[in-house]
Amino acid sequence: MSISASPSKETAWRLSYKNGVVQQFYKLSLQVPPEGVGQFSQWLVDGSPGLDLHLCCPVNAVRTRNAGGYSIDAGGKSHDVDAVVMAPEPGVAADLLSDIIPSDSAAKLRNCRYSEYAHVQLCYKKNPWPNFPASVALPATDLRKWGACVLLSHRHPNSVPAGGEAVGVYFYTPPFADMDDEEIKHEALMAVTEVFGAEP
């Protein structure tokens, strides 16, 4: 003899809600190092014996060398290097690389458009969702006015007081361009409730 039991209405609702959230949003887990993203730089420094590190030293020029590699003018000195990793704003990169890259590439860098975005952070002394299975939620099916919701206790635990929670809600253009501050804050609250559920 077999015995089967149907879930209670509350359990069925919770399962239905959970499945709905999975279908409506991409959920994933991301983490940064314990001390934040800046710790990557420290790890690179710690793992580079003999490193000649220069801080607060703007680069004035980058040139190719006949023997290979590059010469970097910075801080009133010239430095010969094998390779260059460049990550400034596009216009700055275009100026520094104007004698190295094709002119049409430099023009594309100078014509890069900046995208506006807004970030709303909601903070809770007591974490309303301590067991939520993901750290980031992105709209999957229907587009929303917001672009991402991030649980910081999952992504960067040391940035949130013990037992608390902070949710970052990000807005991008469009439709952010047509929203005022009050609309952005309202949409952030709605997004958090929709993705993670209402506060207990």
For the largest beta-sheet, the strand count, sense and barrel status come to: 5 strands, antiparallel
Gyration radius from CA atoms, angstroms: 24 Å
The geometry reads as extended
Alpha carbon gap, first and last residue: 40 Å
Low-pLDDT parts are 1-22
Protein name: Amine oxidase domain-containing protein
GO molecular function, one term: oxidoreductase activity
InterPro entries: Amino_oxidase, FAD/NAD-bd_sf
Pfam families: Amino_oxidase
Briefly characterize the structure.
With 200 residues, this protein is α+β, with helices and mostly antiparallel strands.
Model description:
By secondary structure, the protein is α+β, with helices and mostly antiparallel strands. Helix content is 30%, strand content 22%. The strands form two sheets. It has a five-stranded antiparallel β-sheet with strand order 1-6-7-8-5. α3 (90-97) packs antiparallel against α4. The longest helix has 16 residues, at 9-24. It starts with 8 loop residues before the first helix and ends with a helix. The model is unreliable at 1-22 (pLDDT under 50).
